[in-house]
Amino acid sequence: MDRISPLLTDQYQLSMVYSYFMAGSHMKQSTFEMFFRTNPFKGSYAIFGGLDAFMEYLVNFTFTEEELAYVKETMPHAPPAFFEYLKSLHYSQLTISAPSQGTVVFANEPLVIVQGPLGFCQLVETTLLVLCNYATLMCTNACRMRVATDSVFTNAKKPNVDVKDAIKKVLADKVLLEFGLRRAQGPNGGLSASRYALIGGFNSTSNVLAAMQMGTIASGTMAHAYILSFTTGLEELIPEQHAMVQPLLGGKNFEWFAKRVLAWKSRLFGGEKPPLMLQLNTQQDIAKVSFSSYSGNEQELSAFTTFAFTQPKNFTALVDTYDTLNSGVPNFVIVACALLEFGIQANGIRLDSGDLAYLSKQVRLIFNKVHQVMTEQYDNLTPCSPDMHNKYDGQFLKCKVVASNDITEEVLVQLQKEGAQVDVFGIGTHLVTCKAQPALGGVYKIVEIDGQARMKMTEDISKATLPGSKDVYRLFLSSGEPYADIICKKGVNVPVAGQIVTCIHPHDELKRVMVKPAKVVKLHNVWIDHGELKYPHKIENGKVILQHPDLASTREYVLEQVYALREDQKRYLNPTPYKVSLNQDMNQMLREMALGVKTVPLIE
User: Fold this and answer.
1) How confident is the model over 541-549, as a mean pLDDT?
2) Which of 195, 245, 394, 451 is most deeply packed, by most CB within 10 A?
3) How confident is the model at residue 177 (pLDDT cuts 50, 70, 90)?
């Protein structure tokens, strides 16, 4: 990752740090916490993201001479000692605690805990928020879209399921592609979106630069512009392109391949009783398709043929440029049959408009009928030649249906309900812009200074902060489900598996429940421990190189946790809230501090 400048902050952070410095309080030991007050997208959970970027920011934290010169210009009356202080700031002065990247988290519990000198802790606020707010929002949005595509997350759990295998099957059965670069908030926003989409549950991205940086392969099909750029039929195109040679097609030239395409067109749709017409027109479901004769767009066929010839192992046809069912899909079938002769599997088709549920079902029905034709008549339809592959082994059943077209989480939920036959979703605008909720609303508050707990009290009790340094533990039931997260005073009365724990509502202490957890897991890891770097890393030429977990394992970690949540907590509409509670010690301190800081008016 590129270095993140300390100047990526708000001006008032430097102003406050300067005042701390001049008052001599900048070295007081303090604790700050980042958290958010409401779960995003009207849901019951979030996926924590941004730890990787925040750690990169911290381990590379230093003011360059150019940056210090700029600060001096903006603060001309500051003494030289202040700038020497800024130059001295180093991650070794801090303690950083946070969940692992991709952890399921909830509103009103501390996420990132920053401990160290007051001035330094204050200075990282804005940067921490900009790095973690969008990342968490994006991971959550991607994860919710993943959940919406597969009922395995929202149906009752089956007993004795191998969760790791189940998640791998989910990722294979429904492929999600991030297509949002052109709609992202600038280049950096596009790169961040691609990374956190994959962490949240997407399989791949169309963003080539992001794919290179992440060490993965970008995905994509073709655009309408490509198809519309062809202005002649295939027979007219052959003389222009006849000399092109494709090694993947046995060294054949374009003319040879194009003539095979035309031969398949004639065999499938020509004559008095074309085999494909006989199969398809017996299906009353395909009311809008007429296969009594070929009615496809010849220019579209030229486009598909050229694409398949130049990229035979990457042939996914965009079929809605002219007429999805009467032109695009038949033209795809024709070209796919020509590839079959070389033993090459065409990938499938992409739908970018129309009723995706209806069209996907019709396309799948067509593929199934083509499969029936190929199974029964393939040897008769293709010549037996020693240099050709003449075995049909179900390739049309393996063709994928890709859907795009302004897809939202709600659309995904509805498509699943309607039984849409979509294998791959390409999602852009509503994913990368998080259009349903453009901001997370994470905040960063001081909770302790020199060992003294601090509490912000407001008119709105829901915005009051929880005072003091604290730990968070996740309580699991014997079923393996997480039941509640409990917030405790740091190091005091830590919950233990097998022992009863009282969980108290943060805003209504009469609401409480007693839990006997089968397992207790501490939510936070310490990534920097009093200056010692615990985050995985190596040293190269004296420089710290962080070693982040790979995206695939983080993505599986995300989905395994979400799978473990109760089904009603993952509903699209009105999900059941997950319990975030206080233990008795924390509740007592909150009550005492609230009474101590609350002003009681005198009425005369």
Assistant:
1) 95
2) 195
3) very high
State the angle between helix axes of 125-148 and 409-417 in degrees (0 to 180), rounded to the nearest 10: 20
Does the pLDDT of residue 517 top 90, yes or no? yes
pLDDT at 377: 84
Predicted confidence (pLDDT) per residue in 340-364, tens digit: 999 999 999 999 999 999 999 999 9
Asked whether residue 179 is domain-assigned, the answer is: no
Residue range 92-104, pLDDT digits in tens:
999 999 999 999 9
Residue 377's CB is within 10 A of a number of other CB atoms, namely 15
Tell me, yes or no, whether 465 and 321 share the same domain: no
The percent of residues above 90 in pLDDT, for the chain, comes to 83
Q: What Cα–Cα distance (Å) separates residue 29 from each residue in 15, 62, 88, 319?
A: 19, 21, 16, 63
Q: Is residue 404 part of a domain?
A: no
Which of 370, 399, 428 marks a domain boundary?
399
On whether both 378 and 447 belong to a single domain, the answer is: no
pLDDT band of residue 571 (cuts 50, 70, 90) is very high
- For residue 315, which of 422, 374, 395, 197 has the smallest C-alpha distance? 395
In the prediction, which pLDDT does 277 show? 57
Domain range for 373 is 232-399
Residue 326: inside a domain: yes
Q: Could you tell me the CATH number of the domain that includes residue 550?
A: 3.20.140.10
Q: What is the bridge-based pairing of β-strands 46-47 and 204-205? A: unpaired
Looking at the structure, do residues 376 and 459 belong to the same domain, yes or no?
Answer: no
Is there a single domain that holds both residue 527 and residue 391?
Answer: no
Please state, in angstroms and rounded to a whole number, the distance separating the CA atoms of residues 375 and 398: 14
Both 448 and 555 in one domain: the answer is yes
Contact 214, 194 (CB under 8 A): yes
Residues 392 and 454 in one domain: no
3-state secondary structure of 227: helix
What is the overall mean pLDDT for the chain? 93
Distance (Å, whole) CA 27 – CA 24: 7
Alpha carbon distance 210, 199 (integer Å):
13
Nearest residue to 305 (alpha-carbon basis) of 245, 259, 370: 259
- Domains identified in the chain, total number: 2
